């Protein structure tokens, strides 16, 4: 969420060139990392949960985080920045953070009145942030990036919708497979790994082809595949065959791979070189917001249908209904995402 404040003045060097932004993007997944890295984590998480309990999937990140911190301090001596005479927009950074906190925290509380109140507060901070950025000579976020730049605007909207559609898929399918189907966590993880496997295969060539084929064509096709995959998942029931479920996950993986890399290519190609840091931070922000929206939608549906009751065999029918309703809502969101993705315009002239 704090990507924009940190990258406001980290700009690309004048001599840097991207002869193939799409190919670069194709080797990253929807989280901005190399997709191969995600292949084993669904299985690994299932193994940890089954043999060591669910806290282990969080505790395993502690030594990894320490290792990354030490490696950063030892092997990365410092950073450079072309800040020139620009100062740091502290007021804008504070308003930006308050806007995100209010909006995202409010999403987690919906549909309660306090959730609505928090979202209103977030909207107020958003207004203050936009107003203030227009007045400052050195704003944290240059709003001119959004002026007459439909590619940048709609590509970011499409990215947010994409994350909102699919981030909760793993959560929902994990519950479905373990409770409604009675599978152990390890087996559920093996099934869920189908989606990133397909994404790994599709993402690099999709990014490469987006350098010659309009990203909106490839990304829109990916969004359409993702929407179709959500339609498949909305049809699952306790008696659905595992092959049908795996086929749906494969369609979702195909959609991921086709959308993510070309969409990132479109975003990075829609700005000048000195704004690449801000563009990259916007991708991170859309990811965080989309993921929170995805989980907020799922939790809101669970709250309405299941309420505060613990998951037990007595509520398995309600759990199944919650999964179906959530996937149906994501499908409707995907229809809007298809429109936003195609409306971005062309980047190749």
Average pLDDT confidence is 80
Radius of gyration: 21 Å
The CATH superfamily name of the largest domain is MFS general substrate transporter like domains
Percent strand equals under 5%
Q: Which of globular, elongated, flat, extended, rod-shaped describes the shape? A: globular
Number of strands: 0
Structural account:
It contains 15 helices and no strands. It has 349 residues and is mainly α. The protein has 2 domains: 86-141; 142-349, Up-down Bundle (Growth Hormone, Chain: A), CATH 1.20.1250.20. α9 (169-180) packs across α10 (185-192). The chain is globular. The two termini are 33 Å apart.
Short précis:
It contains 15 helices and no strands. The protein has 349 residues and is mostly helical.
Topology of this structure?
Elements: H1 3-7, H2 21-26, H3 41-52, H4 56-59, H5 61-75, H6 90-109, H7 113-135, H8 150-166, H9 169-180, H10 185-192, H11 194-209, H12 215-233, H13 242-269, H14 276-305, H15 316-342
Task: Please name the defining characteristics of this protein.
15 helices, disordered N terminus, 349 residues, mainly alpha, globular, Growth Hormone, Chain: A, 2 domains
